[in-house]
Amino acid sequence: MSASIFPQVILIGIALLDFLVAAFILWKNSKHIVHRTFFVFVSGAAIWVLGIAFLSITKFFILDKVIFYGGTVMILGLVLFAKTFPDGGTISRRFWLALTPFIGIFIAIPFNVFIKGLVPTPGGTLQPINGPAFPVFAITMGAYFVFSISLFVKKYIASSGLARLQIQYLFLGTAVFAAGVLWFDIILPYFGIFYLNLFGPATSLVLVISVAYSISRYNLLDIRSVIQSGFLYLLTSAAVIGLCLFLIVTAGRFLNERTGAAPQVSAIFSAVIIVIAFPYLRNVFRRLVGPVFLKGHYDPNLLLSELTHIMAGTIDLSEMTEGLLQVLIRKLQLTKAAFIIADRRKITYMRSIGYPRRFFSLSDLQLLFSRPQPHLIFEELEEGPAKDLFRRSDVAVTMPIRVGGKESAMLVMGPKTSGDIFYRNDIALLDLFISEAGIAIQNAKAYLQIKEFSQKLEQRVRERTRELRDAQEEELANAQEILRLKDEFVFLAVHELRTPITVIHGFLELTAADKAKLPASVQRNFAAISLASEGLKRLVDNLLEIARSEEGKLTVRPEAHEFKAILDEVVAEVMPLIEEKKIKLNVNVQPLPLLWCDVDKTKEVLLNLVGNAIKYNRVNGVIAVNAYRHPAEPSVIFEIRDSGFGIPPDQQAHIFQKFFRADTKNTHEVAGSGLGLFITRMLVEKMGGVIDFSSVEDKGTTFTFTLPFASALQTS
C-alpha cells in the first residue's frame, strides 16, 4: 500500500466502523424512533467521510456529489435525531414541513450549482470551486445545524436523571468531534497545513460511540469519571511523549559526537524512561485532575467504612437507622431516603428523612418484594404498577434487605439533588451495604423486642399491683406470676441469643489469622464487626445476669481479698481506653484491711464505673479513684470521680433504672444499653454494700460505694 493513501484508508475504516456501530444500534431495536434517526444521521456521516476519502484517492469529480448527498443526509438525520433523542416521541406534520428545503437540495446536487469543479493544489490536494448556490447550501445547512444544537440544549435544561446523562454523553462526543474538525480542517489549513485535514472527519468515531453507548445502556458510567480518565491519560501521554522527544534529541546529539550510536541507544534510553515516568506522571496528573472533575464525589471504601462503624456503634434501631440515612443523604446527595421494616401483616417500623409518614403501604412493599431483581431502579423499570408506584412516591431506587432469612426490610431512596442517575458504582456500594445492614437490623430488632416486651410487662405489673394493692392474696399471686413469666421469657430469649453470638465470635476468631492479608478498608470493617460482636456479647451477658438475679439464681461468693490487687487488674484493662482519650488517671488508695467481696463481681463493678467515667469524659479529662476507711463503720469507701459531662438534675432520679441512659447534648454518640449502673447497684447490694452518686451537669460525676471488711464479718 502506498504511504500517500494510508490516511485515506484509515478514514475509510473509521467510516465503516461508524456505520457498523449505527447498524448494531438499529438491529438492537429497529422499532424505536431514536435508533432509526441515529442510524440515518450516522449513515449520512459515513457516506460523507467515504466520499472525502475516495475523492482524495481517485480525484474523480463525480464523487463530490457523494460528499454533498452524505453531508445533507447527515444534517437531516441530525435534525431528526435532535427532535427524538433521548426519550423518543413522535414527529409532527408541521415539523416535517419545516424540512422541505432538503428536497430542493437533493434535487439540485447533480447540477453542480454548489461546487462547479475541483482544482489540484501544489501540495497534491484538491481545492473546490464554489458554485453560485453554495452560499444558500452553507446557510441552510448551518441553520439546521444551529437548530439541532438548540434542541439539544433545551432538552438538557429541562431534563434530569438518565436523560440528562445521555445528553451529556452526546455533548462529550460532539465536543471531541467539533474540536477535531476545528483543529484539522480549519486551524491547520489556515496555516497552510493540508495533509492532516482528513483526520477531522475521523473524530466522528468518538461521537458515534459515545452516543451509541448512551442509547444502548441504562446503567451508564459517571461522565465526569470518563472525562477525568480520558483527560488524565491525554496529559500523561503528552508529557511522556514530550519528555521522550526531548531526551532523544538531546541524547542523539550527545552520542553522535562521541560514539555514532545515537539511534539505538536513544531508543533504549527512551523506552526505559517511558516505563519509569508513566506511572509517576499519571499519579501526579490524577491528583491535579481529580478535584476538578470529581469535586463533591465520595470514596466508596471510606463511605462503606463509615456506614459499618455506625452499625457497629449502636444496637438501638432508631439511632442506627437515623445515622445511616443522614450519611447516605449527605454522601450520595439524595433528596430523601427511608428504611421500612414489615412483617406479614403490617409495617412495623419506618424511619425516613424527607418522605412523609407512611408514604408506602404494605401492598406497595409486597409488590416490590415480588420482583425478581435484587434492586429496582426507576429508569430501568418498564411501564407498569411498579414504575407508577415509583413515580407517584418520588422514588429513584429501592434495595430489599434480608432480615431473618427473608426480605422484610427495604431501603428507599429518592432522586439525587443534582438530577444525576444512580451510577454503577453507587449500586455496587449499596449492594455491599445492605448485606451488612440486614445483620445489623436483625440484631437491633431482637434487642428492641426484648426491651419493649420487658418494659410493657413491667408496666402491666406496676398497674396491676396498684389496682390489687388491697386485694386478696390470690390476685397478688397472679400478678407475681406475670412477673415470673416476664423474667422467664427474658432469660430464655437472652439464652437463645447466646448461640448465634457464640457462632459469630467463633468465625471472627477463625478469620483473624488471615486478617493481615486483607485490604486496609476490609480490615477496618473487620475491626468494626468484631467491636459490634463484643458489644452484643456484653449486652446478652448483662441481660442474662439481670434475669438470674430477678429469678434468684445469681450467686455471690464473697471471700477475704486485698483491694489493691483487684484495682490493679482493672486499671490495666482500661488503660488503652484512657490513653486513647488522653485522660489523666489519679489513684489514691490508703492502706486497707482485707475486704469481704466476690473478686469477679467487684471487678465488674469497678469496670462499669471506671468505664463510664472514661466514656462520658472529655478528651484530656481527669479521673480520680480513691479508697479509704469509713469513719463510722467497718467498711471501705470507694470514690470514682470524673471531670466529664455530668447528669442533668431532672434525670438523676432514674440513673439506676434498667435501660435508662442520661441524654445530654454531649452524649448522643456514646454507645450503651442502659444496663451497666443497674447491674452495678445490684452487685454492690448483693455483696453487702451501698452505692450512691452526686453529679453537676457539665462539670462531672462522682460515684461512691462501700464494701465491708473481712475481719468484721468473720468476727461476727
What order do the helices and strands come in, and which of them pair?
Blueprint: H1 6-28, H2 33-58, H3 63-84, H4 93-97, H5 101-108, E1 115-120, E2 126-130, H6 134-158, H7 161-190, H8 199-202, H9 204-216, H10 223-258, H11 262-293, H12 300-313, H13 317-332, E3 337-342, E4 347-353, H14 362-369, E5 376-377, H15 385-393, E6 397-403, E7 406-413, H16 424-467, H17 473-512, H18 520-550, E8 559-561, H19 563-580, E9 584-589, E10 595-597, H20 599-615, E11 622-629, E12 635-642, H21 676-686, E13 691-696, E14 700-708, H22 710-715
Parallel strand pairs: 9-11
Antiparallel strand pairs: 1-2, 3-4, 3-7, 5-6, 6-7, 8-10, 11-12, 12-14, 13-14
Tag the structure with descriptive keywords:
716 residues, alpha+beta, 5-stranded antiparallel beta sheet, 5-stranded mixed beta sheet, 22 helices, 61% helix, elongated
